[in-house]
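Following up on my earlier message about uridine-diphosphate-N-acetylglucosamine. Here are the inputs again, as you asked, copied directly from the submission form:
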Amino acid sequence: MKVLVTGGCGYIGSHTILELLKNDMEVIIVDSLINSKKDVIDKIKKITGKDVTFYEIDLCDKEKLRTIFEKEKFDSVIHFAGLKAVGESVEKPLMYYENNLISTINLLDLMKEYNVKKIVFSSSATVYGNPQSLPIKEDFPLSTTNPYGTTKLMIETILKDLYKSDNSFDITILRYFNPIGADKSGLLGEDPNGIPNNLMPYIVRVAVGKLPILNIFGDDYNTVDGTGVRDYIHVCDLADGHVLALKNKKTGLKIYNLGTGKGTSVLELVNTFEHVNNVKVNRQIAPRRDGDIDACYASNELAKQELGFNPKYTIEDMCRDSYNFVKNN
Ligand code: NAD
Ligand code: UD1
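Thanks, got it. Here's what our run produced:
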């Protein structure tokens, strides 16, 4: 199978490419490098000993994107490309709507024109808003609280409408929970610009002394210890979910949660991080962060049944591998 991976230089895309190559699939990457670096390509080659083709193109430029469809004959697409910072999306909504929606519409339009009908799309647990009960199932009501989340929900709607109009499309929407961790090599990982918003990148920067202290946003949530609970999933397990989605016998339009099904609180994560890495993480309790919810974790039963998805990494592994990446870089 030959796969076009949009956003393949990013955090989840690069880890997924390792899995695709391990499974003897051929990979074409398209990335504008707006939130990643080109050296990821060399690192992928170093880890796998295999070659990939790379195009530095913004998906919003349809005619440049067309050149890839003209040159490369691929059977399927995994669409990671997009901007993903919640806070930035509130400040710059038009930039988010333009980048995430125009890029996707261009891609889908060219897929239709060139008869490439198989796509796996990166959605997010953010489309469940504040869930009424837990664990979250795929048929729960959908809502969003910020422009980033709205772009994900809008793209899901576009994909559903596209499928209604042309059921020869084979579409998989994957709703990721909270990816953390890194490949064992320590070469690839999550490397956000500036001060991180997400918890794990913040913890590791405090651990290595790049940031002074972790603010724990709230200790009065309705959870096991009062701190927020999330479903952290190792990025390599998430990567595996994409290979399974490409190999899935079931066609049509499918939606799967990719999470472990287990909730972990902020305090549990920080304490495990300290323990497995034998390092101190300074922390203090701070006010709640606007828009945060008490708890969020997946039911992954559907992905288990239909994809054979079986996440194998523990919270300990995730903490060890996240730290290993930042220490090496
Ligand atoms: P990332 O920023 O590391 O990777 C995204 C990649 O897309 C980057 O390399 C960026 O340069 C590229 N890109 C962005 N806009 C582009 C455009 N118009 N044309 C070409 N390339 C473009 O993010 P990630 O964490 O790897 O996330 C991948 C996808 O998964 C995103 O769509 C994101 O919204 C989604 N997602 C991520 C998380 C998470 O916690 N990381 C959770 C749920 C969903
Ligand atoms: C965030 C995004 C969500 C996105 C998800 C995965 C927000 C409001 N939501 O969700 O849209 O899909 O990332 O990329 O940004 N925390 C701290 N201190 C910190 C950072 C986080 O205590 O410095 C806490 C949070 O309050 C939360 C937990 O850690 O309870 C996880 O936070 P984070 O990693 O930002 O992920 P989400 O809030 O789940």
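One observation from looking it over: The pocket of uridine-diphosphate-N-acetylglucosamine (ligand 2) is lined by residues 86, 124-126, 149, 178, 197-199, 202, 214-217, 228, 230, 266, 289, 291-292 (CB under 6 Å). Hope that helps, and feel free to reply on this thread.
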